[in-house]
Structures are given as C-alpha cells and as structure tokens.
C-alpha cells in the first residue's frame, strides 16, 4: 500500500523551510505588483526541485527523486503561495516532462540541463482562443518546407512562456489530417526569440498574480525540422499523457491551499473573539473548520495515492488506466475542495477575510483556476464516467 516514506517527510521539511524563508516574506508584494520573481527560480533549481523526475545525466535527482517527491514540493510551495507552486508544477510537468519523455537525446542534452538547474523555464502551448478542452479544434498549423517547419497560429493562457529566462515553448499544431478526417497534431519545440514568435502582453488575471502567463502568436515562424518532439502525428497522445501527470500535480497544489486554509482558520478561531469568547466555541464556526479538516485529509490521500500509482507505473507495476482514473478523481475532488476551503476561510475571517492584508483573500482569488486548468471539473467527470464503462455520447 502507498505511504509517504521518511525520506519524503524529511524532504517536505526542507521545502517548507525554503518556502517560508524565500517566498512568504515577499509574496504579498509580488502579488500586489503582479511580479514574477525570476530570481527565485535558480534557487528552486539549486534545491533540486526541477530535477525530481529527471535522470542524473541531465542534472536531475535520478533515483533520489520521484513523482511523489515532486507532489510534496508542489504542495509545500502551494501552501505558501499558489503562483510559486504552479511555476514549479508547470515548469516540470509541462516544460521538462514532454522533452524528457518524447525528446531525442540531442533535444534532451540541449534543453534539460538548464531547465533542471533553474537557469531556464519552458512552457507547453496547447490551449488556443477557440480550443481548450476541445483540443481537436486546434487551429495552429505547421507546414513542412524542406528542413524546416513553418508555424502559424496562436496559443492562450500559457504558463512560464514569457519570462526573461524562458528558453523554449513546445506547441501543438496541425500537421495533417488523419484517415477519419480528424486533425493530425504534432508537438514542435519553438525556442524563445525565434523570428515570428511573439509573446503577447501578460494577462491581467483574477489570481496567480506572481505567475507568468501569456498568449503566444506565430507568424511564419520557422524552426528546424529537428525541433519536432517525437514523431509526426503523435501530439494528441503526447499531450493526453502530459495532462494526466499534470492533473496529479494540480491536485497537490490544491492540497497545499486547503492545508493553509485549515491552519489559518484554526488559528483565527482560537484568537478572534465575539461576545467575549473565541469564535471557535460556536458550532457554526467549528463545524465548518471540522469539515475543512476532512477535506484536507481526503484530498491528500487521493493525491498521494495517485502519485504512488504514477511511480508504480514507472516500474511496470500498475496500468496506465489506473493512473488516468486516479488522476481524474484526485484532481476533481481536491480542486473543488480547495475552492470550498477558501470560501470557508473567508467566511470564518468575516470582514477581515475580504482584506488583502490577510492571506485568505489571496488564496480565495487563486482558488478558482484550479477547477479549470489541466482539464476542467466537467472533463474530469467525463474521464471518470468513461473509465466506469458508462455510455458516452
């Protein structure tokens, strides 16, 4: 049965100390200023956070790391701030993993060492203005001309795509048509600074203010044919696998949020007084916090079971179907629980919960995107139902 090892718990302490020392003192200002702290990324690299699932030959942790360790790190960063947590989650899950899993030896040697060290970040361009959950509606096209791919189109909501240390963005593009008439999708790596590759101004977002998010435009953008990731036409399968892993990571981010809300509300209910008594004596408050504790425990168990299954899959002891179902379940439950957790926390804090001087306000703004990114709650329910063998449209 799965459980976190002593090594995992010791690692948790290391990441928590890092987050509380390097993030907590600054995050309120970063959030207010919509500032992405690029100088924090190399520090995260020095701690080994970007290399937890990467072999030693590319600068990673090798056998000393695993996917469960990555989830521990994301949870602990997310407990302090969600923007920094998603920077790691996307940096590994969407930036490093596609190159590590599908890249050639030359591609890995070119990009991975800097990404693992935190000297660079990578993005993954899937979503488009008219193609989100319906990835088959992708309009970005890549046409082969001699030894080059010519890319035209646009992407939306791409994390880590416009920082001053972003080195490459992998994008999905139509490269043909399948026999059934559906779009043939391929993944192509486009280095930052490539002519015809434009990073649009940063979005003005509801939350995740310290995270880097941009739209991308490609106009006759030419890259070498060797920038194809894997084989032509494999893009759809590649990003589905990438999203499965990413859903577990987002679930870990949600666990960190719910854990912080539990801590904040418990402390506040013990010290905040009304009618001469701590508000925690009132069942209207204490029962809500008790429900929050249940959600935290359930979210954590579901998330780390899925992470354990993912690690077991790497050793051939579990099936892809098991991981896919567990990923959808934990992502659905944990993210919806996190949204509820921030609502409860804001209610417990009352008027103070509406004030930016208290962290619950920031977490309340950050929460909603968890139910959307890496597959909406509706998509997760579709995946779960399909795996139960229920009829589909």
UniProtKB/TrEMBL annotation:
Residues 5-118 form the Acyl-CoA dehydrogenase/oxidase N-terminal domain. Residues 233-388 form the Acyl-CoA dehydrogenase/oxidase C-terminal domain. Its EC number is 1.3.8.1. Pfam families: Acyl-CoA_dh_1, Acyl-CoA_dh_M, Acyl-CoA_dh_N. GO terms for molecular function: flavin adenine dinucleotide binding; short-chain fatty acyl-CoA dehydrogenase activity. Keywords: FAD, Flavoprotein, Oxidoreductase. Its cofactor is FAD. PROSITE patterns: ACYL_COA_DH_1, ACYL_COA_DH_2. It comes from the Bacteria. Residues 124-221 form the Acyl-CoA oxidase/dehydrogenase middle domain. PANTHER family: ACYL-COA DEHYDROGENASE, ISOVALERYL-COA DEHYDROGENASE, MITOCHONDRIAL-RELATED. Belongs to the acyl-CoA dehydrogenase family. This is Butyryl-CoA dehydrogenase. It comes from Pedococcus badiiscoriae.
């Amino acid at each position: 049965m799965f459980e976190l090892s002593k090594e995992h718990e010791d690692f948790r302490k290391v990441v928590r100390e890092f987050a509380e020392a390097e993030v907590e003192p600054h995050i309120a200002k970063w959030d207010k200023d919509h500032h992405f702290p690029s100088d924090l990324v190399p520090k995260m690299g020095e701690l080994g956070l970007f290399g937890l699932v990467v072999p030693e030959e590319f600068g990673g942790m090798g056998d000393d790391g695993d996917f469960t360790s990555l989830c521990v790190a994301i949870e602990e960063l997310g407990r302090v701030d969600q923007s920094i947590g998603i920077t790691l989650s996307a940096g590994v899950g969407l930036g490093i993993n596609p190159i590590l899993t599908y890249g050639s030896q030359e591609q890995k040697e070119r990009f991975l060492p800097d990404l693992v060290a935190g000297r660079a970040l990578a993005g993954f361009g899937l979503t488009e203005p008219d193609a989100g959950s319906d990835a088959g509606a992708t309009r970005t096209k890549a046409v082969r001309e001699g030894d080059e791919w010519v890319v035209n189109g646009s992407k939306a909501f791409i994390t880590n795509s416009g920082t001053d240390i972003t080195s490459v963005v992998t994008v999905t593009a139509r490269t043909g048509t399948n026999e059934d008439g559906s779009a043939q999708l391929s993944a192509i790596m486009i280095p930052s600074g490539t002519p015809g590759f434009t990073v649009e101004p940063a979005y003005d977002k509801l939350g995740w203010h310290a995270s880097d998010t941009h739209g991308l435009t490609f106009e006759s953008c030419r890259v070498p044919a060797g920038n194809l990731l894997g084989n032509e036409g494999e893009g759809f399968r590649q990003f589905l696998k990438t999203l499965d892993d990413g859903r577990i990571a987002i679930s870990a981010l949600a666990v960190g949020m719910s854990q912080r809300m539990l801590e904040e509300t418990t402390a506040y209910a013990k010290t905040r007084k009304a009618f001469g008594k701590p508000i925690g004596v009132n069942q209207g408050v204490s029962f809500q916090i008790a429900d929050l504790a249940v959600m935290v425990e359930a979210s954590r168990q579901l998330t780390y079971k899925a992470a354990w299954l993912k690690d077991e899959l790497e050793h051939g002891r579990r099936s892809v179907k098991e991981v896919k179902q567990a990923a959808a379940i934990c992502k659905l439950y944990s993210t919806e629980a996190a949204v509820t957790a921030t609502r409860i926390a804001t209610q417990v804090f009352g008027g103070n919960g509406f004030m930016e001087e208290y962290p619950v306000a920031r977490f309340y703004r950050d929460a909603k995107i968890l139910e959307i990114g890496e597959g909406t709650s509706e998509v997760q329910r579709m995946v779960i139902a399909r795996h139960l063998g229920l009829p589909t449209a």
